[in-house]
Task: inverse folding
């Protein structure tokens, strides 16, 4: 039986070294430059609060992701072992996922001629092979750990109970957004670190709110976008076929001379 995985981020142990981002960029072949906010080229980033408190931001890999439920073409899927994955070959560029995400995570490649939605993939291939995500392997202090979701919750509760004066009595991500696959524990109140602490709306309700904001012509618009997408791809296929036929004819003519 496949058990869903999760991250546990202990904010008290993070020293701001940014090894997690460097490892993530190397694993995903992203530009090797340090970034302090999520972007199409940074799937994880550190935000600094005060002199020595760092908060790592990344996709929360929700238990019931709203990005999955609002996507009209199934470009987003939630896998059994935890990752929320994106299939760019299905995407029509509607960006409803960006509107829907309660954690404001997905980023769009606005400067690309073939734009895609970008976000953390939880190193899905590594996880499927029984390995740790690259960011977890790179963390020198153990600020980010990874394992079975239930085990990460047990560990988070153990740390809080072992040192109640050190930690806020809350595991962020356990209930927020209907529950996620990234848990945070902290010595600083979460609202002081930029977390949405009121976010406990069940995912179906979040989806309904987002869909209410989208005009009634959404289905027509989605169909139109998909039609354009199909026609564009079809034209590319025809062009490739015509090019191949022309090449074959050229070789045939050369052989007959």
Result:
């Amino acid at each position: 039986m496949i058990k869903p995985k999760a991250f546990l981020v202990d904010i008290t142990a993070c020293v701001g070294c940014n090894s997690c981002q460097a490892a993530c960029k190397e694993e995903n072949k992203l530009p090797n430059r340090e970034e302090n906010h999520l972007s199409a080229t940074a799937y994880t980033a550190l935000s600094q609060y005060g002199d020595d408190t760092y908060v790592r931001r990344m996709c929360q890999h929700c238990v019931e992701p709203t990005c999955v439920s609002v996507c009209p073409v199934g470009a987003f899927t939630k896998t059994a072992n935890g990752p929320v994955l994106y299939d760019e070959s299905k995407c029509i560029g509607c960006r409803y996922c960006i509107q829907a995400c309660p954690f404001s995570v997905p980023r769009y490649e606005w400067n690309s001629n073939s734009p895609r939605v970008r976000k953390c993939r939880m190193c899905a291939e590594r996880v499927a092979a029984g390995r740790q995500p690259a960011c977890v392997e790179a963390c020198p202090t153990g600020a980010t750990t990874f394992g079975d979701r239930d085990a990460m919750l047990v560990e988070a509760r153990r740390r809080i109970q072992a040192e109640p004066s050190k930690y806020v009595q809350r595991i962020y991500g356990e209930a927020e957004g209907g529950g996620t696959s990234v848990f945070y524990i902290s010595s600083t109140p979460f609202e002081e670190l930029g977390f949405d602490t009121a976010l406990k709306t069940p995912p179906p309700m979040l989806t309904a709110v987002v869909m209410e904001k989208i005009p009634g012509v959404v289905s027509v618009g989605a169909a139109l976008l998909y039609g354009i997408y199909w026609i564009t791809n079809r034209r590319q296929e025809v062009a490739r076929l015509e090019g191949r036929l022309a090449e074959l004819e050229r070789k045939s003519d050369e052989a007959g001379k």
Observations:
- Residues 102 and 177 are 7 Å apart (CA to CA).
- Strands lie at 5-10, 45-49, 53-57, 76-78, 84-86, 107-108, 117-118, 144-148, 182-185.
- The chain has eight helices and nine strands.
